[in-house]
Design brief:
CATH class of the largest domain: Alpha Beta
Helix content: 10-25%
CATH architecture of the largest domain: Roll
Oligomer: single chain
Number of helices: 14
CATH superfamily of the largest domain: Dipeptide-binding Protein, Domain 3
CATH topology of the largest domain: Dipeptide-binding Protein, domain 3
């Protein structure tokens, strides 16, 4: 079973645009992978740990949105894990190399029929409230994650039939069928273990109680989360700072200026800001990840209940203009929800954005499809988008492209958390411009966005064939066995005129102050700053 077998080693990890941009012919993106700006800034994929750093420093990070909830089971946003990682250790740690490593579980064994996983838990671990972590605590947390009616990670654990306690520090996870995605998913929100004494805490959505290296000391809604070092943590070697401060900064220019001024050490940037950041002498953490911008519709609401209308919208969108033009080549135009370096990517299909392909930009074809659907004068609808400059820019680009085909899209800007809530949960708007933040396995887009009961599929668009293929890939273990099934899934999604239309595949890009140590890029694009270190020159102490 290869990578499904755990290693019993200990874990110690060293660890703007404000308006629509016009595409200019002949403009090329700056070179990636070691490129430099005029100010001396560099593009890097990681930074090593140096011998000296300030253990009393507070590491700071700037991001566009806060967590929808600090409860790992009930949050509705794919961005939540970024805020949860400091407070919650997982059963499995997914390394920067994409390999499962011990964390709260020290080792694991898959049964011969692949229907059970036995795990041994780490001895001496305590939660932030002082409660010991044992098998009973892990069982309670996993049972809540998979059975709580409010759990948004339950689909990731759908094949778990039961969790047994086999000893004080032993559990067995029984499955209804083999599930190759289970271990990677236990390295994300589904595997974050909550203290059993905190499960009923009324403020668990703001003050998490996990077994991670830092605990939340101050939660300021819409502003920041302040973390302090947890003195009882089992692996103190990764606690290289006295605390963390994660700040919410919706405006792109505000974030970049804060990094330049030294107010925060690192922060997310938009693709168009990278040349400026490099010219400022700032470095850029840059690498591939399985995250994409997308335009999605509710296939149960008019006019998108008609597949011809969905197909028309698909051909009205110009992915190349968005990815290569507006986003300056830092977002690859594609129709596939997996990057080209993923085993799930169908190389024969390719990005499929050229003439005659599924994602071809063809406004005239879009008009013809609308006429066939009974809308010769076009259609009008509302689309929701987070009031973050980068997202608004993309929404405005889509709006202009659709207008060329006689489609009128009215943009409604709301707070980021409200965008997901309105489109996916309340289902009060027919369309949205959003981005996908991945789970630990390639099945993530399917479970969270494409299956009939997925949160990101408010219209429930599906087919028996899609369900059959999903179950088939679940029963196969190795990527080599799963890949052909994923290619079949992609073909079925296209046959259905999928509700979610991938625009372009993003890269992980964050601007940081030179000298920051222990930064890594994870295959999923997750922002896990485990083991990060701040030199005295940047600490302000």
């Amino acid at each position: 079973m290869g990578w499904l077998q755990g290693r019993a080693a200990g874990l110690c990890i060293p660890a703007v645009v404000t308006a629509l941009v016009v595409v200019v012919a002949g403009c090329a993106p700056i070179e990636r992978g070691g490129g430099e700006g005029q100010g001396g800034g560099e593009l890097v994929e990681s930074t090593p740990i140096a011998e000296e750093y300030d253990e009393n420093a507070v590491f700071s990070w700037g991001y566009t949105v806060g967590a929808s909830s600090m409860d790992p089971h009930r949050g509705s946003s794919g961005f939540d894990q970024n805020w949860l990682f400091p407070a919650y250790d997982r059963l499995i740690y997914m390394s920067p190399e994409g390999e499962p490593e011990p964390m709260l579980a020290t080792d694991w064994t898959l049964s011969e029929d692949a229907l059970a996983i036995d795990m041994n838990l780490r001895e001496g671990v305590v939660f932030h409230d002082g409660t010991p972590l044992d098998a009973d605590a892990v069982k309670m947390s996993l049972d809540r994650a998979r059975t709580d009616p409010e759990s948004n990670v339950a689909p990731l654990l759908a094949t778990v039939e039961s969790v047994e306690v086999t000893g004080p520090l032993g559990i067995r996870i029984n499955l209804t069928e083999p599930n190759a995605a289970l271990l990677p998913n236990l390295g994300d929100r589904a595997g974050m273990i909550i203290s059993p004494t905190a499960l009923q805490n009324p403020d668990l959505d703001r003050y998490p109680v996990g077994a991670g290296p830092y605990r939340v000391a101050d939660y300021r809604d819409g502003d920041r989360v302040v973390y302090e070092k947890f003195e009882g943590y089992w692996d103190p070697e990764v606690q290289r700072t006295a605390g963390l401060e994660y700040r919410i900064m919706a405006d792109d220019e505000t974030r970049l200026n804060a990094i330049r001024a030294g107010e925060v050490h690192i922060g997310i940037v938009r693709e168009s800001q990278i040349p400026s950041a490099l010219d400022m002498g700032l470095n850029v953490l840059d690498g591939p990840r399985n995250s994409y911008y997308y335009f999605s519709v509710n296939a149960a609401m008019a006019p998108f209940d008609n597949p011809l209308v969905r197909r028309a919208v698909n051909h009205a969108i110009n992915r190349v203009e968005i990815g290569d033009g507006i986003l300056q080549g830092y977002c690859t135009p594609t129709v596939q929800p997996w990057p080209a370096n993923s085993w799930a990517y169908d190389e024969e299909l390719g990005d499929a954005v050229g003439a005659g392909e599924y994602g071809e930009h063809n406004p005239e074809m879009a008009r013809q499809l609308l006429a066939e659907a009974g809308h010769p004068d076009g259609v009008t609808f509302d689309a929701i988008v987070a009031n973050i400059t980068g997202y608004v820019t993309i929404a405005e680009a889509v709006q202009a492209q659709l207008a060329e085909a006689g489609i009128t899209m009215n943009i409604r800007q709301v707070e980021a958390a409200q965008a997901n809530e309105a489109f996916m949960v309340e289902k009060t708007v027919p369309a949205a411009v959003l981005s996908y933040e991945p789970t630990m396995d390639e099945s993530g887009p399917l479970v969270t966005h494409y299956l009939g009961d997925a949160l990101g599929n408010p219209g429930g668009l599906t087919s028996p064939e899609l369900d059959r293929l999903f179950n088939e890939q679940n029963s196969r273990i190795s990527p080599e066995e799963r890949a052909p099934v994923f290619h079949g899934i992609m073909a079925e999604l296209m046959r259905l005129d999928m509700h979610e239309m991938v625009l372009c595949m993003r890269r992980r890009q964050e601007v940081f102050q030179p000298g920051l140590q222990g930064l890594n890029i994870y295959p999923t694009g997750a922002r896990d700053y485990r083991g990060v270190a701040v030199p005295a020159s940047l600490s302000g102490n």
